[in-house]
Amino acid sequence: MTSAFIEAKQLTLALNRIPQNTSVTLTVLAKCRAIASYQENPIATSGTQALDLFVNSLTPLLKDVNAKLLYQSSHCLNISGDEHTNWDYQFIITFDNISAVTSLLSLEALHQILPHFYASCSTYETVISY
């Protein structure tokens, strides 16, 4: 398990240990922030909105490298029953082979949308399986 989601150097090092023609699945578990925390001008009013922007922007990039995304979320309520800030998300991204993953990591468009992900999540973990 690694805690680096799409940080190219660490992810690439992990992927170098996997045979080239092996299919790869990245499972990312993320907990959203109540307010998206951007260093620059805010693009979203909440962590969930920023994460939705990330997923909407990521989907066409995944199609370009022939990868599939399963995106699930569950909304938790606080004890009073009002909506609360505890959102849990799960991304399961399946790639046909290692070159599809490295192709995605090399796309400039991916690096342009990563701030949405980092701004939206308070914690996240990634599992690489093959």
Would you write up a description of this structure?
This protein has a 4-stranded antiparallel sheet with strand order 2-3-1-4. The two termini are 12 Å apart. It has one domain: Alpha-Beta Plaits (2-Layer Sandwich). The protein is globular, with a radius of gyration of 15 Å. Helices cover 37% and strands 32% of the residues. The protein has helices spanning 8-15, 47-64, 98-106, 108-120, and strands spanning 24-32, 68-77, 83-95, 121-129. A hairpin with a 5-residue loop joins strand 2 and strand 3 (83-95).
SSE blueprint and pairings:
Layout: H1 8-15, E1 24-32, H2 47-64, E2 68-77, E3 83-95, H3 98-106, H4 108-120, E4 121-129
Antiparallel strand pairs: 1-3, 1-4, 2-3
What keyword list fits this structure?
130 residues; Alpha-Beta Plaits; four-stranded antiparallel β-sheet; 4 strands; disordered N terminus
What would the principal axes of the Cα set say about the shape?
A: globular
Q: Please indicate the percent range of residues in DSSP E strands (runs of 2 or more).
A: 25-35%
Give the biggest beta sheet. Answer: 4 strands, antiparallel
In the CATH hierarchy, the third-tier topology is known as Alpha-Beta Plaits
Determine the mean pLDDT.
Answer: 77
Strand order of the largest sheet: 2-3-1-4
The H/E string reads: HEHEEHHE
Class in CATH? Answer: Alpha Beta
Structural domain count: 1
Euclidean distance between termini CA atoms: 12 Å
Unreliable stretches (pLDDT < 50, length at least 5) are 1-6, 76-80
